[in-house]
Every structure is written in structure tokens, then in C-alpha cells.
Write a structure and sequence with these properties.
The structure is a single chain. Helix content is 33%, strand content 24%. With 222 residues, it is an alpha/beta fold. The N and C termini lie far apart (58 Å).
């Protein structure tokens, strides 16, 4: 059951191919990474057989299975088993004992995340919680998109506030007064371009900006 392709440093193994795991694996493939998908359900594996370059139906809680798959040679692994706590812990524990791949893991609850953290997992996903917080900011502040970066900062896209149009970005002084940097602009042609100090925003432009979560709402259109 060992992979027939030679494992490269950019290879990623994904355990659990539910909605989160399959979306993550497919996005990595789209980005050019070689991905091995692993799920205990033959039906799930069959549904992804034509989309993932390498996908296996097997019980990942068996340490011998991990060795047969050559998981120790991967640079990164993602445990996307969120709803089966026992399986998540067993797989994660076996991976950590390998002292090889860097481990990311999904947590469905804060309690599961705490257990994973105590086990030594440094990278933990909270997809449901993170998506809920993201959606709250999009709804409340009318952002087109919102990504919390941590440490009190966020990356957002939104339609430009009319009060910010018609003058160069340098004159607006957003970085000085609000700590906000506009880094890209998308006009009527639907193409993103870099924003510079001399860029002049127009009504209806969409902007990509980064700044403190407390002040980033200033740029939202009325």
C-alpha cells in the first residue's frame, strides 16, 4: 500500500475527507501540491478518485497502516477528523510519535482543541468557529470578505467608502490616522492591481485592506 510516487517536500497527507478535509485537499491540489487523501469510507474515497491524484480507503488509526503508506516521509500532514474524537486522537498521537511530518489538526470543539494542544499539536484548525466569526464581521460591517490575521489585525475586501474617493491614498492618511493600509484595488474591469501612494480611488471600486480590527470598518461604504 506504499505510494508509488516519490515523496517530495511539498507533499501533504490529509486524514479524513469530509467536507473540510476534501475541500482542503482539493485546494492544495489546485495550488500544485501533491496530496494523499486518506479516509476509512470506501464510498468517500471512490467519490474523490478522479479528483485527487492519490486517495486511499483504509483505517488510519492503525500505526502499521501509516508506515505502509510512507507517512513518515511526508513533510506535512493534516488530521481533518473532527467528529470522531477517538480516531482524531489516535491518528494524531501516532503521527506525533513519528517525529517527522509537521502536524495540523482540526478541532470541532474547544475541548478537542485543548486535548490536541496538550498532545503537542502546534497548528489547530477551528473551521466552524472561525467561519462563524468571519461571517459575523461580513454581515455586521458589510465587508465582501474578512480574514482575521490574529494579534488584532484583519484583511478585508469591501466597496470603497465614497468619502475616500477622488484623492490620492497618501492624502487620505489612513495608515497614519487609522493604521489601515490599502494594498490592492479592483475597478470595473474586475482585475486586482496593486495600490500605491498616488492611487486615486473611484466610486464603486473594491479595495483590499489590512488594519486593526477596531478601525478597519472605517473604510466600508455607507
Amino acid at each position: 500500500m506504499r505510494l508509488r510516487h516519490s515523496v517530495q517536500k511539498h507533499d501533504v497527507a490529509v486524514f479524513g475527507l469530509g467536507r473540510f478535509g476534501s475541500a482542503l485537499a482539493l485546494e492544495l491540489v489546485y495550488a500544485g501540491y501533491s496530496v494523499l487523501g486518506i479516509d476509512k469510507s470506501p464510498a468517500v474515497v471512490q467519490s474523490l478518485a478522479n479528483k485527487l491524484p492519490h486517495v486511499v480507503a483504509t483505517d488510519p488509526t492503525n500505526p502499521d497502516t501509516l508506515e505502509e503508506l510512507g507517512i513518515q516521509d511526508f513533510s506535512r500532514v493534516v488530521v481533518a477528523i473532527g467528529n470522531d474524537l477517538a480516531s482524531s486522537i489516535l491518528v494524531t498521537s501516532a503521527l506525533l510519535k513519528m517525529n517527522g511530518p509537521e502536524v495540523w489538526a482540526k478541532a470541532s470543539t474547544p475541548q478537542q482543541g485543548q486535548i490536541l494542544e496538550q498532545m503537542g499539536v502546534n497548528h489547530i484548525f477551528y473551521p466552524e468557529t472561525d467561519m462563524g466569526r468571519r461571517a459575523a464581521h461580513i454581515v455586521a460591517q458589510s465587508f465582501n470578505d474578512y480574514v482575521e490575521l490574529g494579534y488584532g489585525y484583519a484583511l478585508v475586501s469591501t466597496t470603497v467608502n465614497d468619502a475616500m474617493t477622488g484623492v490620492e491614498l497618501a492624502e487620505l492618511g489612513l495608515r497614519r490616522s487609522k493604521g489601515i493600509s490599502i494594498i490592492a484595488v479592483k475597478g470595473p474591469d474586475d482585475h486586482w492591481v496593486n495600490a500605491y501612494a498616488e492611487t486615486i480611488l473611484k466610486p464603486g471600486d473594491e479595495i483590499l485592506a489590512v488594519g486593526p480590527t477596531k478601525t478597519i470598518g472605517f473604510i466600508v461604504a455607507d
